[in-house]
Design a protein that fits this description.
Elements (H helix, E strand, L loop, with lengths): L11 H5 L2 H16 L14 H14 L5 H5 L2 H9 L6 H17 L6 H22 L25
Helix pairs in contact: 2-3, 2-6, 6-7
Bound molecules: protoporphyrin IX containing FE.
InterPro entries: Globin-like_sf, Globin/Proto, Hemoglobin_trunc
Keywords: Heme, Iron, Metal-binding, Transport
Protein name: Group II truncated hemoglobin
Length: about 160
């Protein structure tokens, strides 16, 4: 899948180094979540390998990689379904986002400001939507494409 940026720019997926580094980030993230008193309650019994793989596939697709989540795991509709009714609080959202930022460091993802700003932008957006969609009685769009994220206002500087 092409990125959403100007032609010639690498996708965020390519810049990250492909699926393996994203899997590493998600693994580091859920290892932290399992030990986190604010977040572990969402995953009674721990976070399965299957769950970790699905979430890594979601991130890969959003960042411009292969469309595995849409083709094999149910796409936007499945992702949405998993969050309905979770009733995520703002404090839990913040911990989730901060923990993912730490996990990006744990996994030694590229640390340049442009890449990190872009993925944190997606994280902030996605977690805030997750809070809204998880509220009791929420009526989010039933169908939507899997989002695509790009570099936004700060692509890598090419001198
Ligand atoms: C950028 C933000 C987020 C992304 C990209 C994301 C992604 C996903 C995806 C793709 C799934 C489904 C995995 C599958 O298909 O098996 C999922 C499930 C889940 N997510 Fe999120 N999520 C986000 C935010 C959150 C937040 C803020 C929380 C809670 C604090 C949360 C808690 C959960 C839980 C508990 C499940 C599993 C539910 C179940 O198994 O029934 N997520 N997430």
């Amino acid at each position: 899948m092409a990125g959403v940026d100007e032609p010639g720019l690498p996708t965020l997926y390519e810049w990250a180094g492909g699926l393996e580094p994203l899997r590493r980030m998600i693994d580091c993230f859920y290892d932290r979540v399992e030990a986190d008193e604010a977040l572990s309650g969402f995953f009674p019994g721990g976070v399965s390998t299957r769950h970790r793989a699905h979430v890594a596939d979601w991130w890969a697709e959003v960042l411009g990689g292969p469309e595995t989540y849409t083709e094999q795991h149910g796409g936007y509709e499945a992702m949405l379904r998993h969050h309905l009714g979770l009733d995520i609080t703002p404090a839990q959202r913040h911990r989730f986002a901060a923990t993912m930022s730490l996990a990006a460091d744990d996994a030694a993802l590229p640390a340049d400001p442009e890449f990190r700003a872009a993925i944190i932008g997606y994280l902030e957006w996605g977690t805030r939507l997750a809070v809204e969609n998880s509220r009791r009685g929420a009526t989010p769009p039933a169908h939507a494409p899997t989002p695509r994220w790009g570099w936004g206002v700060a692509p890598p500087y090419v001198g």
